[in-house]
Design a protein that fits this description.
two-stranded antiparallel sheet, two-stranded antiparallel ribbon, 4 helices, Helix Hairpins, mainly alpha, globular
């Protein structure tokens, strides 16, 4: 059993010493464990539908999601901001519910629901004309200056 330090807490953890199957969930910490970096889902290139190129920059994704939503006939603006915000919350709730499901389907379901929430966030940012890239850079600069755990216990 090895020690694993996380945010100044020492947690008994043997994930680093025992063998795991690809995308096996560690029963101790509930994180995905893989045998090699090549088997991690986020290390694989996405399958892109023919003729469609996905954006590379964050603000391009924001615009992409806004245009997709417009093509599908949905409306996003200040007048329905509370509705759109609650739809983001709903996607997060669905992600938590997916986490409660069978381990074999959990990984893909959690990932899909998180993607739904991000797509809704990007659409909202694009529809309201926000420069999300700059806003995130500014916010992360503020966050970097905060103390560990923002000075709280958790």
């Amino acid at each position: 059993m090895s020690k694993y330090a996380d945010n100044n807490l020492n947690v008994e953890h043997d994930c680093l010493t025992r063998e795991h199957d690809p995308i096996e969930w560690c029963p101790d910490c509930f994180i995905p464990i893989t045998k090699s970096a090549d088997t991690l889902p986020w290390n694989k290139k996405p399958v892109v539908p023919s003729g469609l190129e996905y954006p590379e920059r964050l603000n391009d994704w924001v615009e992409y999601c806004k245009l997709w939503r417009e093509r599908k006939g949905f409306h996003t603006w200040w007048d329905n901001l509370p509705e759109k915000a609650m739809l983001i919350v709903t996607e997060i709730s669905e992600m938590v519910e997916a986490h409660r499901s069978d381990e074999n389907s959990m990984w893909n379901s959690v990932q899909e629901e998180l993607a739904d929430a991000v797509i809704r966030c990007f659409d909202l940012a694009g529809s309201l004309g926000f420069d999300l890239q700059t806003a995130m850079e500014k916010k992360m600069n503020i966050n970097e200056k905060r103390p560990m755990k923002h000075g709280k216990r958790y």
